[in-house]
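Justification of computing resources. Each target in the renewal requires a structure prediction run like the one illustrated here; the chain below, 283 residues long, is used simply to show the kind of job we budget for.
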Amino acid sequence: MNTILNSVQGAGLGLRRSFLNEIVELASPAIDFFEVAPENWMLTGGKSGKQFRAMTEKHPFICHGLSLSIGSADPMDEQFLYALKDFLALHQIKFYSEHLSYCSHQGHLYDLMPIPFTSDAVLHVANRIKRVQDILEQRIAIENVSYYAAPGQEMSEIDFFNAVISEADCDILLDINNIYVNSVNHQYDAEAFLRAIPAQRIAYAHIAGHYVEADDFLIDTHGATVIDPVWKLLAKAYELYGVFPTLLERDFNLPPLTELCQEVAVIKNIQTAWDQQHAQQSA
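Resulting structure tokens:
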């Protein structure tokens, strides 16, 4: 069983500083857990630091990294990893995930860049993931990312992703919106991609909105509401693999917190429907 299932379940929301004051006072039964980028909170003090500490004492949390640059050729920032380990322990956060990408090359690039889909890259990235797991002394999850070009491609996205996950022996953060966005941009079958995921490694999922630049070109922004085909793909994932923890990401064009909670409630409703159906089938 994935470590995360011992610490979070149900439907979650990415915690953003802009609604921290409001959410501290909110008691929403729809939000079962929260996720934060540790880079945004590790050095936070003052009122916000105290509020965050109060939140982690009250609610289950996950950390989702932004800056580890797991696919980079730059040396691993092990100082950051040891600081992260202390942060996880302080707030009793049991799980950490990162992107299958890189964001540095002799300095930070401030964007998530695609790793070439090559056999050499598989070994390079997997070895770095193993080192992260050794330092943190726990398994981590790696997220399938959106990408807009695949330079030097030797294998398909799903074959590359699965090879990295297997070689590193880590878990999966399954981003449903990224599958949908990539399926449109690179013209593949989203459900076929989903069916090829090793189910036993799925720790939790992300779901988010995107921007439609053209009918055949979508941009993963986390800045809009989730659209119906993405909700349907999430339901298909539950149908295939059972219900797993799922978190709503929203980073830009933030609506009122009540609207975010409504989207989290949609996740919860889909989960409940599939749990009930599974119970009926098992009866």
